[in-house]
Amino acid sequence: MSGAGKKVADVAFKASKSIDWNGMAKMIVSEEASREFATLRRAFDEVNTTLQTKFSQEPEPIDWEYYRKGIGSRLVDMYKEAYESVEVPKYVDKVTPEYKPKFDSLLVELKEAEQKSLKESERLEKEIAEVRELKEKFSTMTADEYFAKHPELKQKFDDEIRNDYWGY
């Protein structure tokens, strides 16, 4: 097996170990997304299995002596010479260097978006809790209690009264 093929198979194997499939599956909310995720996982597993089986094995060496006995040494020597003259070019990865910076910048953007999303989720959770609390207390709440929670509204109303602005 060539070094590049073995390297690809090793990287794919390591990648499959580091993917938290169960963690990602827990984040899926819709049925359609679950189906797409299952398809993605199946495709990944198929590709990974193919890489592990096809590219992780060295080809069996040819037993030239066996063929010399049955065919004749002149023809076998000709095939052996032709076989040994074949050079398989090494794979030179020209794509990864081109896309690696783009991928890395997308990862940075992803992390920033994740942090922003978590902060927004936290803010929304607090707002939901406040609205639920307000909903429960609304029927018995006094204006002073409401203004204690929202001093900016109290200030606005006080300014309007002080300036004799009654909204008309």
Helical content band: over 70%
- List segments where confidence is low: pLDDT < 50 over at least 5 consecutive residues: none
CA gyration radius, whole angstroms: 34 Å
Query: Pairing-aware structural class of the strands and helices?
Result: mainly alpha
Proportion of residues in β-strands = under 5%
Tertiary shape: rod-shaped
The number of distinct β-strands equals 0
Biggest sheet overview: none
Counting DSSP H or I runs of 4 or more residues, the number of helices is: 8
Order of helices and strands: HHHHHHHH
Q: What distance lies between the first and last C-alpha atoms, to the nearest angstrom?
A: 86 Å
- The overall pLDDT, averaged over residues, is 83
Description:
This protein has 168 residues and is an all-alpha fold. Among the domains are: 1-59; 138-168, no CATH class. The protein has eight helices and no strands. The chain has helices at residues 3-18, 21-27, 31-54, 64-71, 73-85, 96-137, 143-149, 151-162. Helix 1 packs antiparallel against helix 3 (31-54), helix 4 (64-71) runs antiparallel to helix 5 and helix 7 (143-149) packs across helix 8.
What's the structural blueprint in terms of helices and strands?
Blueprint: H1 3-18, H2 21-27, H3 31-54, H4 64-71, H5 73-85, H6 96-137, H7 143-149, H8 151-162
Q: Concise description?
A:
The protein has 168 residues and is mostly helical. 77% of the residues lie in helices and 0% in strands.
